[in-house]
Amino acid sequence: MTIEQIKHTIIEQILEVAPDIEENEIVPNENIQRSLEIDSFDFLQILTALKVQLGVEVPEADYGTVDTLEHMADYFDKRL
Question: Burial of 74 by CB count in 10 Å (0-12 exposed, 13-18 middle, 19+ buried)?
Fold first, then answer.
């Protein structure tokens, strides 16, 4: 899976969990929770869905390293 495919998968999950968000609102280097006003429950839902889809679990200690689309894509890319 390429990094672009991983990003696409992450974006799909964000839009699934938060359907009121438009894809063009997702800025690659901005904090997902702050810029999109996603609460921690929705953020955990996104990570859980990505675990199911990509087979990579993000431990709580790593939540700070998956704060942007770019960071999240890099995180999953290194673990796939």
Answer: middle
The owner of tokens 């280097």 is 29
Residue 10's alpha-carbon distances to 1, 44, 46, in angstroms, are 13, 13, 8
Instruction: Tell me the per-residue pLDDT of 40-74, one tens digit each, with 9 for 90 and over.
Output: 999 999 999 999 999 999 999 999 999 999 999 99
Q: Is 67 helix (H, G, I), strand (E, B) or coil?
A: coil
The per-residue pLDDT for range 6-47, each reduced to its tens digit, is 999 999 999 999 999 999 999 999 999 999 999 999 999 999
Q: Tokens standing for 14? A: 């964000």
Cα-based distances in Å from 13 to 18, 52:
8, 11
Q: Could you tell me which CATH class the domain 3-79 is placed in?
A: mainly alpha
Q: What is the DSSP code (8-state) at residue 60? A: G
